[in-house]
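This part of the workshop introduces the protein records we will be handling. A record pairs a protein's sequence with a compact description of its fold. Backbone structure tokens are a discrete shorthand for how the chain folds in space. The question running through the whole workshop is how a given chain folds. The record below serves as our worked example for the rest of this section.
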Amino acid sequence: MPEELGSPDPGSLLHGFFTAVVWNLFAFAGAVALIAIYIGIPIVAGFGLVQFAWLIPLRNRCVLEGRTEDAKGVMVAAGITVLLSAGCWSVAFWR
């Protein structure tokens, strides 16, 4: 009988979380840099939702590679970013 191969590495929740945080930081910095030519304004304004354009493919890639814990970390980071963005917008509109 062939030996059972080890299960694929499920990754780490923190690795996925910090990967998503780095992606978000680079995207936000790029959007801020593009404000000068008016392209970055909608990206910064809707960052909580726009982030899913790059985080969903990142999560799907993690799942396809069997790194389920990394995928969870990506979604945790996305959820925190959405909540922070909503909190900032609520403060801005209620003043």
